[in-house]
Design goal:
The complex is a heterodimer of chains A (110) and B (113).
Chain A (H helix, E strand, L loop, with lengths): L2 E3 L4 E5 L4 E3 L2 E3 L5 E7 L6 E5 L10 E2 L10 E3 L8 E8 L7 E3 L3 E6 L1
Parallel strand pairs in A: 2-11
Antiparallel strand pairs in A: 1-4, 3-8, 5-6, 5-9, 7-8, 9-10, 9-11
Chain B lengths: L3 E4 L2 E4 L5 E7 L5 E7 L5 E7 L4 E3 L7 E4 L7 E4 L8 E8 L8 E2 L3 E5 L1
Parallel strand pairs in B: 2-11
Antiparallel strand pairs in B: 1-3, 3-8, 4-5, 4-9, 5-6, 7-8, 9-10, 9-11
Classes of the chains: A mainly beta (110), B mainly beta (113).
Chain lengths: 110, 113
Amino acid sequence: AQRVTQPEKLLSVFKGAPVELKCNYSYSGSPELFWYVQYSRQRLQLLLRHISRESIKGFTADLNKGETSFHLKKPFAQEEDSAMYYCALSTSGSARQLTFGSGTQLTVLP
Amino acid sequence: DTAVSQTPKYLVTQMGNDKSIKCEQNLGHDTMYWYKQDSKKFLKIMFSYNNKELIINETVPNRFSPKSPDKAHLNLHINSLELGDSAVYFCASSPAGLYNEQFFGPGTRLTVL
C-alpha cells in the first residue's frame, strides 16, 4: 500500500529565509507526486507536480527516487506563502486517487 | 464560473439522521472523488468514480454511499450519522490521463451533534 509522510506538522520561518517542507513516500509502482496548497479560507489547489519540473510561486520540488522523497523548497519565503501544504501521491489505475500526507502548516513570520 | 461546487457549505445535524452532500463539476471531467478532512486536517480519499468504475476506500463504512446521476454530479449519502462523521468533506474532479490535476470543491463542514 502507498504511504506519504510529512514529518513536520508545523513549520515557522521568517520572511526572506529559505524554507523546505519535507515529504517522503512509499509506493511499489512508479510514483506520481504532487504538492497541493490550502490557503486560509480557500479551497485546496495544485501547487506543482513532479512531472512538470516547474517552479510555481518560487517553489520547486525534485523527485528523488533513491531517497523516496519529494521535498518542497523555496529560497526566500514570503508572508503570503503561509498556508497548509499537502504532499500527495497518485496511484496507478484508471481512477487516480490521491494519497495525501498529513500536511504541514507553514507560517512565514514578518 | 467553471469549477467544482458543493452544497451545502455547512451541515449541522443530529446523530442517527441521514443526510446528503451534493457535488457538481462543469469542467467536463471524467472522474470525481470524495475526500474527508478530519479535525487534524488529515485528508483521506473515500471514493473515486468514473463512468466505468467505483473505487471504494476499504476503511469507509458502508453507511457512506456515492451516487452519480450523471457525469457531472457525484453526491455523497450518509446514513445513520455518528459523532465521528464530523469533518470537512471535499469533492474533487479530474480529467482522464496521467499526472492530471485534481480540482477541489470548497468543502462541506459536517457537524454531528
